[in-house]
Amino acid sequence: MPGTFITFEGIDGSGKSTQLRLLGNLLRANGCDALLTREPGGTTLGLRLRAALLDAMEEVDPLTELLVFAADRAQHVRRMLRPALEAGRVVISDRYADATVAYQGAGRGFSPELIAQIVQLATEGLKPDLTLLFDVSIEESTNRTTRRSTSKSSAGKTPRDRLDIENADFHTRVRVAYLQIALAEPQRVKLIDTSGPVERTHERVKEIIVPYLHSKGHLKIADCQLPICID
Question: Which terminus, N or C, of the chain has the lesser number of Cβ atoms within 10 Å?
Fold first, then answer.
C-alpha cells in the first residue's frame, strides 16, 4: 500500500498543532500507522535549525531565513518523509512547502519564481496528497499567541517566537496567501474555520480525514462519528 502525505497549515495561533495532536491520538487508537512530524524541527538537525530560526532575540536576514527553512525541509524530506511514505505509512506534517509560499513569499516579499525554485529544490517535487488549512482572524491569532506565550513563560519556557512578534500587516499577508492557495487548489486544500471551540474543529478534521484515510486503505473504519480523544 502506498503511503499518504497530509499537511496541516495555518497562521500562528490557528490551532493546527493542537489538532495534529488530537488526530494522532485518534489514529493510533484505531490502529493507523501514522508518523506525526513538523517543520521546522522534524529531524535532529531540524531541531537545532528551529531553535536558531525562531529565537526572538536572533536577528535573521530574510534570505537566510528562506534558505535555512529550505535546508530544514531538504533534510526532512530525505531523512524522514520519503522513507516513511515508501514504507506505506501515513505522514502528517505540521507545516510544509505552503508555509514557505505564505511566510517567505507573501510575508517577506520574495518573488513567486524564487519561492517555486527553492521549494522544488528542497522537496524534489514531493507534494502533499491532502492539506488542511486552519484559518482564524488576525485578531484572534494574536490573542491566542499572547495567551500561549504567557502560559509558557510562567512554566519557564521561551515566550513568543520571532514569527509570533511580527506585526499585523505581516500576518495579514501570510493569511491572505494561505487563502489564495486554498482557492487555487480546492481539491488538495480543505479550509477549516478554527474560530470556535477545539472540539468543534476536531469534529471537522475527523469529517475530512477519517473517510479519506479509509478510502486509501489506512483505516478499517468508515464511520466519522468516532469519539474525541483529548488527553
Answer: C
Omega before 40 within 30 of 0, i.e. cis: yes
Query: Helix, strand, coil shares of the chain as percentages rounded to 5?
Result: 55, 10, 35
Q: Which residues contact 57 (CB under 8 A, 6 or more apart)?
A: none
Residue position matching grid coordinates 489564495:
180
When mean pLDDT is compared across 5-9, 98-102, 150-154, the lowest value belongs to 150-154
What's this model's pTM, rounded to 2 decimal places?
0.89
Mean pLDDT (whole number) for 88-111: 97
Higher pLDDT among residues 187 and 46, named by residue: 187
- What number is the average pLDDT over the span 31-52? 89
Query: What's the DSSP call for residue 216?
Result: T
Among residues 77, 72, 79, 181, the alpha carbon closest in space to that of 126 is found at: 77
| Alpha-carbon distances of 62 from 49, 51, 53, 123, 161, rounded to whole Å | 15, 16, 11, 20, 15
- Ranges of each domain in the chain: 4-37+83-215
